[in-house]
Design goal:
2 domains; Aldehyde Dehydrogenase, Chain A, domain 1; 425 residues; 14 helices; Aldehyde Dehydrogenase, Chain A, domain 2; 16 strands; 7-stranded parallel beta sheet
Length: 425
């Protein structure tokens, strides 16, 4: 069934209420579809994305031109940009989600009480999920795919930077979903870019079941401060790589350069490099980054390694650059590295490079981040790389879901109690 998009007359609360009610009605229908139907719908959506390549790339070109005119940074433009390869990757990710095991109805555990009651916990959809995001048009497709696959309806509010791209991707996906029998309102895109709509979404308790913010610190801070709806937060990626004294120099250099420069605008990019004072190849490590075009801002001992390193300010240790800028500190061993990460990290992704497995295991155990790595680039902080298909974001909190949030993270559970006539004494 196709649900017409609500009209907008300037009343943001009424608009969000209408969208949410349509989404909740669609989610009720979606919950009645089996795994095979939802899988077929995702495949149809992926096919529609490929078929609409020209229209989507044309829309993206409009966004890119507007972004350049507005003075968006290189990193922001990189997040925004689509090309045939990236769009194919978006469609492939939607198709990959279709092949993932369906979490809905999955039994988590089962117990039998002494009185004969059989209790089980099963996964169920959360309901209607509001996703507020900036810059990245791929989130439109990822969120739609993950919502559908987990039995949830989604209400998307993308950033103004990607407005044309988001609309084109949304239109293509909905066309595919409707063709496969999914109600159009299962995936809705807010039809205007007024910031007041965000406020209306945040206070729509009882209509929207969860909010997922994806964007900069100011967006996430506003969502957490103003929301009357549960929030699954994705905070800054102030990610560290600690090169221990026992690091293999070839691994250390390759990992550091990749972690920072593969794509500077992704949330898994390294933002601070910690070098052990006893690591013997410190100068060549920083030289490799500098030679690759990265600006380094260091403490006094880091500045002494290469004259091209500029002094860091206090703010640098707490900055998510998302461009080719890196803060560098020389630390006196593992304890100092752990203390620096605890003081300045964002609990997103932190890595150690070392051949000392005892040190590595202590780092893995003691760093309190959603993702902790040994001898690997922080750029692997991605749901696709974790085998989860697409992701809705990387949660840095401690409740409900943590790390890349995919299908399982978009479900909750309920208890099923089966009896044979028991009454409580």
């Amino acid at each position: 069934m196709t649900v017409p998009a609500p009209s907008f007359d300037g009343d943001h609360d009424s608009l969000v209420t209408a969208l949410a009610r349509a989404g909740r009605a669609a989610q009720t229908q979606l919950a009645q579809l089996g795994s095979a139907q939802r899988k077929a719908a995702l495949c149809a959506a992926a096919k529609a994305l490929r078929a609409q390549e020209s229209a989507i790339l044309e829309a993206n070109a409009r966004d890119m031109a507007a972004g350049a005119e507005r003075g968006l940074s290189g990193a922001m433009l990189d997040r925004l940009r689509l090309d045939p390869g990236r769009l194919a990757g978006i469609a492939d990710a939607v198709a990959a989600v279709a092949e993932l095991p369906d979490p809905v109805g999955q039994e988590i555990d089962r117990t039998e009480r002494p009185n004969g009651l059989v209790l089980s916990r099963v996964r169920v959809p959360i309901g209607l999920i509001g996703i507020i995001y900036e810059s990245r048009p791929n989130v439109t497709a990822d969120a739609a795919a993950l919502g559908l696959a987990s039995g949830n309806a989604v209400l998307l509010r993308g950033g103004s930077e990607a407005v044309h791209s988001n609309r084109a991707i949304h239109a293509a996906m909905v066309a595919g979903l409707v063709e496969a029998g999914v109600p159009a309102a299962a995936v809705q895109l807010v039809p205007n870019q007024d910031r007041a709509v965000v406020g209306a979404m945040l206070t729509a308790a009882g209509l929207i079941d969860m909010i997922v913010p994806r964007g900069g610190k100011s967006l996430v801070a506003r969502v957490q401060a103003d929301a009357r709806v549960p929030v699954l937060a994705h905070l800054d990626g102030i990610n560290h790589t600690y090169v221990h004294a026992a690091a293999d120099p070839a691994k250390a250099q390759a990992i550091a350069v990749n972690a920072k420069l593969r794509r500077t605008g992704v949330c898994g990019a390294m933002e601070t490099l910690l070098i052990d004072a006893l690591y013997p190849e410190s100068a060549s490590l920083v030289a490799a980054l500098l030679d690759a075009g990265c600006e380094l801002r260091g403490d006094a001992r880091a500045c002494a390694l290469d004259p091209r390193i500029v002094p860091a300010s206090d703010a640098d240790w707490d900055t998510e650059y998302l461009e080719a800028i890196l803060s560098v500190a020389v630390v006196d061993g593992l304890d100092a590295a752990l203390a620096h990460i605890a003081a300045h990290g964002s609990h997103h992704t932190d890595a150690i490079v070392t051949e000392d497995t005892v040190v590595a295991e202590r780092f893995l155990a003691e760093v309190d981040s959603a993702i902790v790595m040994h001898n690997a680039s922080s750029q692997f902080a991605d749901g696709g790389e974790f085998g989860l298909g697409a992701e809705i974001g990387i949660a840095t909190g401690r409740l409900h879901a943590r790390g890349p949030v995919a299908l399982e993270g978009l479900t909750t559970y309920k208890w099923l109690v089966r009896g044979t006539g028991q009454v409580r004494p």
